[in-house]
Amino acid sequence: MSNFFWADLGTTLFNSAVLSMSVFIFASGLALILGILKILNFAHGALFAVGAYLVYSIVEWMGGAADLMQLVAAVAVSGLVLAGIGLAADTVIFRRIRDIDYHYSLIATYALLLFTEGLIKVIWGVDFKSVASPPEVEGSLIAGGVVMPWLSVFAVATGVLTFIGLEYMLNRTNLGKLMQSVAVDPWMSNALGINVPRIYTLIVVVSFALAGVAGGLLAPTTALTPGMGIGLSLYAFGALVVGGMGNIRGTFLASIALCTLDTFASSYLDLTPGIAFFLAIALILTMRPTGLTRGVGL
Amino acid sequence: MKQISRRQTLAGIGAAAASAALPWRVLAQAKDPIRIGYLAPLSGASEVIGRDQLIGAQIAVDQINKEGGLMGRQVELVVRDDGSKPDRGVAVVRELVGSGINLIVGIYASPVTLAVADTLKDLNALLMTQCSALTSLTYEKFTRNLFRPTEFSLMRQRGIARLAAMENPQLKSFGCVTTDIATQIDAWNLVHDGLLEYFPAMAGHAVDVAEPVRMPAGAADYRTQISRAMGIRADALYVGMHGGDVITFLKQQKAYRLLDRFQMAFDAGSEYFVPKTMKKETPKDYWTAIHWYAPAYAGNKISDDLYKEAVTRTGGDKYPQGYLAEAHTAVRALATGIQKAQSTDTETLISAMEGMSFETCKGTRTFRKEDHQADADVNYIRFGPADNEDGWEVTKYQVVKGVDTIPPASPGKAFELTFLAGAGIKPLK
Amino acid sequence: MMRISLSSLAIGLAVLALMLALPAIANQGVVFFAAVTYIYIVFAFSWNLMFGYTGMASFGHGAFFAIGAYCGGVLVMKLPELHFLLVLLLAGFLGLAVGLVVGFVVRKSSGVYFAILTIALAQLVFLFVSSSSYLGRDDGYSGIMPPVVNLGVGKLDLSNGNNYYYFILGITILTTAALWRLVHGPIGRRLRSIQQDSQRAEFLGVNVAGYRILSFSLAGMVAAIMGALYAPYLRIATPEFAYFVFSAQPVLYTMLGGMHSFWGPAVGGIIFGMLTYLTRTLSGFSEIITGFTLLVVVLALPTGILGIRSLLKHARRSGERGKTQ
């Protein structure tokens, strides 16, 4: 096998990893709300966009250019702002749609999506915006003929760290165990004295914050437009559902499996990106209507 | 004709009943204003373009009215948003025609232009387009009721090949990355055809053209395709993208240093979007097309006045979009026609404007009788990052005169890519 | 509820009269917009067949509309000798066929899984038509000429005057009548039982999977017919019909008007149509207004506008019961 083949394979594997982790970072916030509140938050994509736009504004305020530490700080601030928005959204919307038929919650979050996108246009306007990548992460790591942009490596690392962090929190901390029990059996959890509504609120806040952080982290890699979250949304919904209704481990694995399949298909078979992805989802959900992993819970 | 006036009367009664829907009412008086319908994408994906187009059109109308109006009457622009949606565009045009307006200026998105163009004959309306680049509008989809005062895809894209041959005759090979959308695929075929004509003619040698690398439109991640593009061995690169796509692409390719591998890089025409958005991140020595590069026309009174007014009305933007200028042009073209014909009747105007010359911010243009296409200049600019307040600057520009690049007319027939055909190359589909 | 009250009949006749007289009293733009709204409303009726009557919330219904639009457009242009009614039926059958296959695939799926599955499948249709150069890619299949319909007693040229408006009115009324009969008959009752409690229905011997497939395919067929009716009117078919945003439109109409009433989507459609028409000169605010309206409806009025009536009835009844005790 020629060097060219291995480089090609390596490149495709790396690109698969980048896409998988981008989708996973986006989907992780969605997974929390889906797993515990059983609500699919259609508005997540718009919140992601808000996170990106907030980072843009913060960087502009800093003078238009940010180094890595400043960018990370901006992302953190963006996450906090979104957490605050999450608190407001929980009070006004999510609290009311928790116990009603899931159809209504789907429609309510869709309405929130429209509203948030409109708000972005009003606040930031429709011109294209861009966040410059920090100078520390310009350029790439080149190994074995495979070009790996540092920004992308950073994204992959963040995705893996997010997974490890969430897994740790859910399985090793008390708070995490409370969340798991609420996800599996809210009635029993309540009977055992767990403040279920407070957990629900916390989940919404964390989910919104994660959306903001995801948007902020991915902002330097793309042009900012009000509708920038829709593409990743569609991918994330697929990964979530195939991974099993909010199961973090399942979502992680599904993101990797589906994105790798799609990247290989578009690289080697010249398929339009997305076709392999959605075809796989359709096939999987046909054969296993409740997704790949068994059982509810995180 | 009788049908329309009956509708007008009934519409007047209906309008009185549903007055909230029509913000402008026609009162039958002697010196009533000339009402011209104006369509632009004021919402949706192209809102950033439509907004500036509207400003350009309004400037034109205000200037005309200050100089006394047309036929002794003031001109009134009846503005509608087509949202880049064909159904909205058609509904709005029908509404305008129904309320007595037969003259429409505007539209930007090709599907909307196509859908509206198909209805013009039945509605006995006239459409003066603004920046509708779709080649077929004055070729296989030609209709008498449509006039194109601006340059279009055929002129611009083949012009890019001409530009390359003029600027860098030493280039021996070309590569291409293009999005998978209809306009871009057409554009690449045109560039390719142009490369096969202009290099032998102007640089004295033929060029090799590589297989294009195709990108998914609107994707968030071009890395797979950028990786593949790294394998392109060529002297120059054509980036067949515009809008948000090209910005995302340019940002993502930086880490790969893709553009650094080429002596010359140009895209399909993204106005000032790239440098205004990317600022210091702007790629170096990057060519693009723009509908109007004001400094190239310094000394042209219309251009100078337009520039001053545009900067004011866009809140101090020193780099007004070319779309703004061509909207201005479209209104001026129609106004010139009305003045010449001393009438707003559709048929009269069509006859009057065929072969008519009119003054614009890019000089004099003339509508060809055969296909209603005007010989507009094409403007190209090269920019790069700079150590100034903006973060970027224009380092070179080229004006390709319309008379030099306007292709032969063939209304009703598609443009023949004779050079591709001659080389036995099948166009990209 | 087969008995039609006098007030309902009066309202129905008044609306019919208004629709028939519209071209004479309103301008062409309103007429065009109204015809488009009739089509969108029947599209929403077909969606509610799945949702309000069978409990399946599809977010990908636009795919069927797109399939019908492209099928109709291509047939009208490539086989102009075909009678237009036949074109509509053929498009309908294509929708039915696809609906049967997809319905079989999704028959065991419900809830969020079902929603995502429909989104994924619609996205496949969208990607397919966007990448087909024959169908015009993202620019769509354009230049579709409105056909001439042979009605036996004469020919109706749909590109002439208000003929197409009346043709659309006729077809949409016929389709609505057919749907009405369907849901008020035995099939409708079975579907309703599945919507209320699918487990219980299964228990009582209803073939739940079978009826879900039926509901899905019939909805797909009607949506495809509407798409084929629409494409020559607009003279273009675009991939946008298969996109997520367009698929959400029947959802909006139904939620606003009320999912439990047959006429809910119509009420929602009229209100949304008016809102869109009245805000057509404002730009950018339409999303905020739409989103906000929908949010208010879902949070405060989950049964929609037509649900207000039954809420009031319920309140009055329990009030009376309270008094007698």
How is this structure best summarized?
The complex is a heterotrimer of chains A (298), B (429) and C (325). Chain B is an alpha/beta fold and 429 residues long.
State the strand order across the main sheet of chain A: 1-2
CA radius of gyration of chain B: 22 Å
Distance between the termini of chain B: 44 Å
Low-confidence stretches of chain B: 1-30
Figure out the total of helices of chain A: 11
Structural class of chain A: mainly alpha
Mind telling me the CATH class of the largest domain in chain B?
Alpha Beta
What is the CATH superfamily label of the largest domain in chain B?
Response regulator
Query: In which range does the helix fraction of chain A lie?
Result: over 70%
Task: Indicate the low-confidence ranges of chain A by residue numbers.
Answer: none
Large-scale geometry of chain A:
globular
Report the largest inter-chain contact.
Answer: A-C, 46 and 42 residues
Strand count of chain B = 15
**Helicity range of chain B:** 40-55%
**Span between N and C termini of chain A?**
43 Å
Share of β-strand residues of chain B: 15-25%
Mean pLDDT of chain A: 87
Order of helices and strands of chain A: HHHHEEHHHHHHH
What does the main sheet of chain B amount to? 8 strands, mixed
Q: Strands, helices and their partners?
A:
The complex is a heterotrimer of chains A (298), B (429) and C (325).
Chain A: H1 3-37, H2 44-61, H3 68-97, H4 102-124, E1 140-143, E2 146-149, H5 150-172, H6 174-184, H7 186-191, H8 196-218, H9 229-243, H10 248-268, H11 275-287
Helix pairs in contact in A: 1-5, 1-8, 1-9, 1-10, 2-3, 2-4, 2-8, 2-9, 3-8, 5-6, 9-10, 9-11, 10-11
Chain B: H1 2-17, E1 34-40, H2 47-66, E2 75-81, H3 86-98, E3 103-106, H4 110-123, E4 126-129, E5 146-147, H5 153-167, E6 173-179, H6 182-203, E7 208-209, E8 213-215, H7 223-229, E9 236-240, H8 243-253, E10 264-267, H9 273-278, E11 286-290, H10 301-313, H11 322-341, H12 346-353, E12 357-360, E13 363-366, E14 378-385, E15 392-400, H13 402-405, H14 418-422
Parallel strand pairs in B: 1-2, 1-3, 3-4, 4-5, 6-7, 6-8, 6-9, 9-10, 10-11
Antiparallel strand pairs in B: 11-14, 12-13, 14-15
Helix pairs in contact in B: 2-10, 2-11, 3-4, 5-6, 11-12
Chain C: H1 6-25, H2 28-51, H3 62-78, H4 84-106, H5 111-131, E1 141-142, E2 148-150, E3 155-157, H6 163-183, H7 186-196, H8 198-203, H9 208-234, E4 236-237, H10 244-247, H11 249-257, H12 264-278, H13 285-300, H14 305-324
Antiparallel strand pairs in C: 1-4, 2-3
